[in-house]
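Encoded backbone
================
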Amino acid sequence: MQKPEIYFGGHKRYLECLLLNKEEYKTQGMNKITNIKEIEKVKKITLGDVFVENPHILIWKGVNKLELIKLGEEAQKTTLTIENEEIKDIQGGQQNFLILTKSGKVYSLADGKKNNIDETIEIPFEDYNQSSFKTPRCITFFEKNNLLVYAIASGNYTNYFLCKNEGKLYGSGWNSDGQLGKGTLNNQRMPVLISKNVQRVFTGTDSNNLFYITQDNELFACGLNSLKKLGTNNTNEIVLLPEKVILKNIPIKDASEILDIQPSYNSTIILTNEGKIYFCGELTNPQISQPTFKEFESFKNIKIIKIFSNANDTFLLSEDYLLYFVGLNNNNLIFEHHAFSLKTIELPKYFQDLKGSNLLSSLTMNCGYHSFFLFLSDNNILKNDFKKFFESKKYCDSNISGLVSNNQNNEKNEINEKSETSFPIHKILIELRTGLKLDEIQKIINQNIFSQEAFNEFLKWVYYNEISSSVTTKQIFGACNLMFPPEQNFENDLLKLFNDEDSKDFNLLVKDDEYEDEDEDEDEDEDEEYEKIPVHKLILLARSGLFRELFENLNENEKNLNQIKDYSGKSIESLEIFIKYLYTNKIELTADNDPELIIEELKDAVEYYQLNESSNLTHELNKYVKK
């Protein structure tokens, strides 16, 4: 993937410190950020303190690295680390940032500037004061109550925490419009239980609402109900307890078909899995309000894939990668006039160049009251392909079995229930990643009892480098004599696999153009007409939909097939380059290659071989087109 770019729009005094050349600042539209180092490592940007003199942004970089930037005349940057944890998500509130780790812990990061209880109520510590902390601090409430958080959401001075335990949803902070769903307007500094059996939660930058979907796939809402934007049967301005949202005008089976919900101050937008947009409240005309959800006519024939909202503005990204804007245009974010409008926004050239590419599926926007960020996060195609491959549980050639604990949470290593369990795996991959032979790994399993969940987490690292820091997962690494966190690089391991010719277990048979077969003896071995390109069967299955289909359609007698003819008509030179791309996700040409031939022959390889992520190959080839 080419180096990512980040753009922003909004108030100059908040964001000009992110520009190397402040004179290039545009008062409307998008400005390219040029003053963030290691921009390729950025996973997410979120805004905080958007109503005070100097707002902050929090940038998530790498596994557990953060960069906090205080905006203003001169940016003040602080580098932070969540020790011994891996970050899963970050969310920005008004006075507080939330940081969720993969181990289920939540950390809070606050500026500590204000001491007014109403303005710091969203900071969930009983002992909070204006000089409490400038580094991330763990919210011990969840640990003390044996709760594992797996999703967070931040609204207008309000935080929401969704836990694995029975789907419990907790909230804390401002409750000025009943957005905590407790039947009162009392603020809550410490988290309070809102509901159980919840699977997803939604809120907005300045909406004072809570929406959540239950495990029964029903949608509930509470909080500010201005212009009847909640879509319930309640017409009151404030809804104090969660009520069921009426979805009868949305042609879906139930709330499981909802992709996203974006509430703003006077409206709520629902995006369905099919890319349809429905709204309640008002969007483009403050005089007209819609009390139940209806389809947004302007997008009736447009498939939307992402939506982002702030207080009064909504951005919608279409399947064709056009960005639409609807709303009040706060602070003239997009164009000059401050009025309700519907407008198509011209994306910067960086994004236009990626039109039609799957890379844009990782395009994200973060909206604050005075600004927005638009950027393409690092989309690791190799890891994504192997993640899907792992989750499919198909094509495995070996098994590891042993006595495992069935405990869901085995942090104390207490064994209550044990059972014999078999884990299907790919022998060559687990040996590559661990440096151990399969029988050695099996011996380790036989000598220990790990939780089933922990071993699954270990296999996630094997297949796509996702690392869990649970105690029992660390024990597996220790038993295998692997450092934790592991030093092995996923991409380097796959390159090592490419260079290991002895372990390649499959051949692509490619027609040799120099071989003249017209006058050859018919009895001659047909395979002599073909040149063999050795490859690992694992790589073909993980990266190419074409090869997955081919192997799925083999009969029992063909299951052990170790070679197949390539009918693409491409040259040996091009296919050798392509095969290495499947391992490395990079096109590397040398002086001996004919770039024009390779570019021409591989331009349709994405479609022909049914690659999961198309644009990276196209852009890798384009590097040589430009040269």
Remarks:
- Residues 37 and 130 are 30 Å apart (CA to CA).
